[in-house]
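Work Package 4 report. The design task specified in the project plan requires that, given a folded chain encoded as structure tokens, an amino acid be chosen for each position. We show below one input record used in the internal validation round.
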């Protein structure tokens, strides 16, 4: 399959942007990551609003890997000379792909972009797709971190969520990850599930902690548009129960050595997800695959967001471009774009990072910062940009101060 490069839209060229006022230059480029989207799942879950599609009995592995590498080739001129700090295989269910397919893909990526010596490579996996030999083979490829989609250990809750695994498989998945050689892995767990009590939610969390993952993503189920749950809402716990779950669960995590470093992310010492940290710190990332998003900076101050063709059949069609669209971020949107990410971090970021990532002076935030501090949403610290605990709870309200 060959996509015609001439059919690809210009997203980082001069067209359309030549008359813009010159921007403040960046002192240096941010770290670079790569996101690879594999859009197929065994079954679409009723709560999921990600770009995922029910897999056919035979996946087009070879064709899709070819497309991913061709897609990457078109982004390469914009990252020449840079190295990758992390790679994240997301989905969908990337663990549906064979080790052979992922191996060919990783080899192709490394031939095109230099890997950092300590690169973090994460693969999302579901317990229902775990096979010992397969995951040992993934580890041998250099994939050194797993993110396992548990969501719950309770049969009734898994059934309500449309998951294909059961509680025993969820527990075995963590054990098998270790046996396959993964000493760094995340468990994804949700709370606030249909008809879930506080005791049930905390029992799930205690079971996850007992499996001793290095990282836990623990977050509340929300009803998203364009999902089955949005159109047919289940009965969810009352707000006071949700608050008690959140408060008690955070105390439990802290007691067992899991420090919260982002709204829904908890890690053992030295084990936060480096790929996600790059997102929150307004780093750069290439996005390849159906529906993947990217963000790329240039030293002249231009910062672009890009997104790829969403439907797998269109992404695999040689007559259609990989890229669906792109946007040059206007200068007046950069404060919101930066803080929308950075303020998710529990400890925020150094104030100096704002200029490093946007080219703009942190003094340009002074008026909005003062208002947010007076409302108790932003910490009064000239050297850091940090939301208060209240600001973390009402992040959307906090961000409104930085909309221009």
């Amino acid at each position: 399959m060959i996509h015609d490069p001439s059919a690809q839209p210009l997203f980082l060229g001069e067209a359309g942007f030549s008359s813009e006022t010159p921007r403040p230059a960046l002192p240096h480029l941010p770290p670079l990551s790569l996101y690879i989207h594999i859009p197929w799942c065994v079954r679409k879950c009723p709560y999921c609003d990600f770009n995922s599609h029910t897999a056919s009995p035979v996946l087009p592995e070879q064709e899709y890997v070819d497309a991913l590498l061709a897609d990457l080739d078109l982004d390469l001129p914009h990252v020449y000379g840079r190295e990758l700090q992390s790679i994240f295989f997301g989905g969908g269910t990337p663990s549906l792909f064979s080790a052979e397919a992922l191996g060919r893909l990783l080899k192709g990526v490394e031939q095109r972009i230099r890997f950092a010596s300590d690169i973090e490579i994460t693969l999302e996996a579901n317990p229902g797709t775990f096979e010992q030999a397969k995951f040992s083979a993934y580890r041998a490829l250099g994939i050194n971190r797993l993110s396992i989609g548990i969501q719950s250990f309770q049969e009734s809750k898994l059934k309500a969520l449309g998951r294909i695994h059961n509680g025993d498989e969820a527990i075995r998945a963590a054990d098998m990850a270790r046996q396959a050689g993964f000493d760094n892995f995340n468990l994804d767990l949700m709370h606030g599930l249909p008809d879930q009590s506080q005791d049930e939610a905390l029992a799930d969390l205690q079971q996850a902690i007992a499996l001793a993952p290095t990282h836990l993503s623990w977050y509340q189920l929300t009803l998203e548009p364009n999902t089955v749950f949005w159109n047919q809402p289940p009965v969810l716990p009352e707000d006071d129960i949700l608050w008690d779950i959140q408060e008690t669960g955070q105390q439990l995590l802290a007691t067992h050595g899991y420090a919260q470093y982002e709204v829904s992310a908890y890690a053992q010492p030295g084990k936060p997800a480096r790929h996600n940290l790059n997102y929150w710190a307004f780093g750069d990332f290439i996005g390849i695959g159906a529906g993947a998003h990217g963000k790329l900076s240039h030293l002249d101050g231009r910062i672009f967001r890009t997104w790829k063709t969403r439907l797998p059949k269109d992404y695999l069609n040689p007559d259609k471009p990989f890229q669906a669209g792109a946007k040059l971020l206007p200068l007046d949107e950069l404060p919101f774009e930066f803080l929308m990410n950075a303020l998710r971090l529990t400890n925020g970021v150094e104030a100096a990072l704002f200029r490093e990532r946007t080219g703009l002076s942190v003094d340009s935030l002074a008026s909005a910062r003062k208002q947010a501090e007076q409302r108790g949403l932003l910490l009064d610290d000239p050297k850091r940009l940090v939301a208060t605990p209240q600001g973390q709870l009402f992040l959307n309200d906090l961000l409104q101060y930085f909309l221009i």
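The chain has two domains: 22-277, 331-404. Validation will be extended to a larger panel in the next phase.
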